[in-house]
Amino acid sequence: MLTLALEKPGETTPKLRLSLSKGERFHVTVGWRCGHTHIHDVDVHALEARNAGAGAKVSRLESILSTYNTKLMNPQGGVLVNNSDGSFATPEGAVTHSPDVREQGSEETITIDGSRLPEGVNEIPIFVTIHSNGEAETFDEIEQAGITIADDAGKELGAYQLSSEFKEFNVVQFGSIILGEQGWEYAPVGRGFVGTFNDVLAQFS
């Protein structure tokens, strides 16, 4: 299978280093709005990964926080159980996802709690994808689509306007939460892909 992993043109974003204690919570929010009748679905995903120096890797399905990995959306292959309100989480509850929303003008949020991550997990790559009527589209199809990350105090740590900064892509690696020497920190990535979410997973497994 061919996969196009295309770097966004421009200068490399410098890594942010924040002195955050282990246990710090992060909130990633994605929202979108269209001015036409196309039905778009924008989703945010996160991986509980281990990075021993050769890149972040995931070895179990339970570590993939994605609507594609829920029993509600994927009864035959999903492993994560949805709560009564539609939200879901990884088994230890370290990474949780608000209910999946497929209506424009709404928001979806992932919350990451470093104190509850399994032993050995030291990186949480975060991705955002777009689909329209089951077909892969690009963020150029949406007038307004953005993603932000904030700490538990509400301080914004990073943000991208997907509709303009990544309009030629349908998958973007937003960034990663990394366990560094000073604790948990957010490292922006800003990398665009053309492909499917499984193409992304192939690079992390």
Describe the structure in your own words.
- The protein has 205 residues and is mainly β.
- The chain has a single domain, classed as sav2460 like domains (Lipoxygenase-1, Sandwich), CATH 2.60.60.
- It contains 2 helices and 15 strands.
- The N terminus is likely disordered.
Q: Any low-confidence stretches, pLDDT <50, length ≥5?
A: 1-21
Main beta sheet, described?
Answer: 7 strands, antiparallel
Number of domains: 1
CATH topology: Lipoxygenase-1
**Helical residue percent band:** under 10%
Short note summarizing the structure:
By secondary structure, the chain is mainly beta. The chain is 5% helix and 42% strand.
Task: Detail the topology: elements first, then pairings.
Blueprint: E1 4-6, E2 25-33, E3 40-47, E4 50-51, E5 56-57, E6 64-65, E7 88-89, E8 95-97, E9 107-113, E10 123-132, E11 135-136, E12 144-151, E13 156-161, H1 162-165, E14 171-180, E15 183-194, H2 197-202
Antiparallel strand pairs: 1-15, 2-9, 2-12, 3-6, 3-10, 4-5, 7-8, 8-9, 10-11, 10-14, 12-13, 14-15
